[in-house]
Each structure stands twice: as structure tokens, then as C-alpha cells.
Amino acid sequence: MTSNSYFPPTQDGQIVWLSHYNLKLPIYGANCGISDQEITDTQTDLDYYTWMLQHWHPSIQRDAKESTAYKTMMVTGPNSGKGGINYPQPSVFPEAPTAPAPGIQKRLFSQIIRIKASTNYTEAIGHDLGVIAVANNIEHLIPIPSISVERGEFGQRVAINFNKYGHDGVWIECRINGGEWTFLAIDTLRPYYDERPLAAGNTHETREYRLRWWDKSVAHGEWSTVQSIMLGV
């Protein structure tokens, strides 16, 4: 783990920080001595880093826990006399972006040191890049949803996890198969479960979700990154 004070300690915070830096680097990189090729390479690094933190690692951890619980139940659980227990289904997550060489974080922090050493670097640039520690960490700016398909009481359902960071809750919207965004729920406890069945005639659906903060009965702030998942497969 890094000791850099500007880099958030939590994975949710790191996802926001990495996405923000990825967005801002092309604005300031060239002026601070970073070549176009290095900017492109850094974006490849950060796209993959973010995907690992946001999608792959949580899914693998969840699958491991569910498979262990299932094994324990089947091996040592009580004999109910009933069969047909469904085994856990593997999580579905977005396809991985291009994988870079190992050492993403070392390259990133080395780059930031060089940016700060540039004669064109200013404190304003540092704040906009997010490489100066501030009291209110950037991780609080937007919700960071993590979604997965799981088996519910009535079939498949989507579990939406998030960290409130001191907010009252989140305002959740959804769109199905590329349709219009519609209000889904206000949720103050995690996870939120979308247990709606597939629309009549559908054998599968692509559902996308986005979240905003909800405080004192008002939705506010920027939308989260859109999360997509497939149901019915």
C-alpha cells in the first residue's frame, strides 16, 4: 500500500481518484513534461486499475465467499430431505480493458513526482489533479456503486452496494436495454436489491444503474459512473 497522503486509503475512494486523475492528466500532462505516449500509456494503466478495483476483485471475492458457504452447507449442513439446491452462479462483470505490465502504482506515483518537479507545475494544477492532500477527500464527491447478479427468493436479482460517506442515502435510476433513465429508488441502507422480473417477452435484459447523493429529501451532486449488468443469462 502507498503512503502518499493524497491517495485515498479505501478502494471506493481510489476508484474515484483514479477516474479523476485519468480525466485531468491530458489537460496538464504535456505542459508538465509528460509526453503524449506516456499519457496514453497511463490511461491504459488506470483504466485497468479501475476495472480491477471496481468490478473484478469484488466479484472474485464475493464468488469465493459464496462457494465456500455452499461447500460448507453441502458437506456439514443439516439433512432437510430436500434436493434441488441451486449452487452459486459466478458473477457477471464488464469485459476487462487492455492489461498493462505490472507496476501500475509505481509508474503512477513516479509520474506525479515528475509533474510536481516541472517548472510549469502550480499548486492550482496539483489541486485539480488531486495530488495535494485536502481535508475533504475527493472520494466523497460521487457515490461508487458496485453491482452484481445473485439468486433471490423469486429468481435473479441485482444487488447494488455503495458507501454513504456520511450522506443520508442515494437516489438510484435505471434504464433497461438502452431505454430512458427512470427513477428506481431512494435507499439509505445497503445493499439495495432490484428484484423486478424481466419485462414480458424478454429472455434477458441489460440493466444500467446510476446514483446520486440524497440528503434531507433532496437528490444532488454528480451522477456516479454508470454500471451495467446482464439479467436472464
Helix and strand run: HHHHEEEEEEEE
Average residue-wise pLDDT: 87
Shape: globular
**What is the terminal-to-terminal distance?**
37 Å
Number of helices: 4
Low-confidence stretches: 135-139
Helix fraction bin:
25-40%
Number of strands: 8
Largest sheet data: 5 strands, antiparallel
Gyration radius from CA atoms, angstroms: 21 Å
Report the structural category. alpha+beta
Number of domains: 2
Q: Beta-strand level of the residues, as a percent range?
A: 15-25%
List keywords for this structure.
34% helix, 233 residues, 2 domains, three-stranded antiparallel β-sheet, 4 helices, five-stranded antiparallel β-sheet, single chain, alpha+beta, Immunoglobulin-like
What does this molecule look like?
This protein is of the alpha+beta class. The chain has two domains: 11-139, no CATH class; 142-231, Sandwich (Immunoglobulin-like), CATH 2.60.40.10. The protein has helices spanning 11-28, 36-76, 104-117, 123-129, and strands at 146-152, 155-161, 169-176, 182-187, 192-194, 205-215, 218-220, 227-231. The strands form two sheets. Strands 3, 4, 6, 7 and 8 form a five-stranded antiparallel β-sheet that branches. A hairpin with a 2-residue loop joins strand 6 (205-215) and strand 7 (218-220). The radius of gyration is 21 Å and the shape is globular. The two termini are 37 Å apart. The model is unreliable at 135-139 (pLDDT under 50).
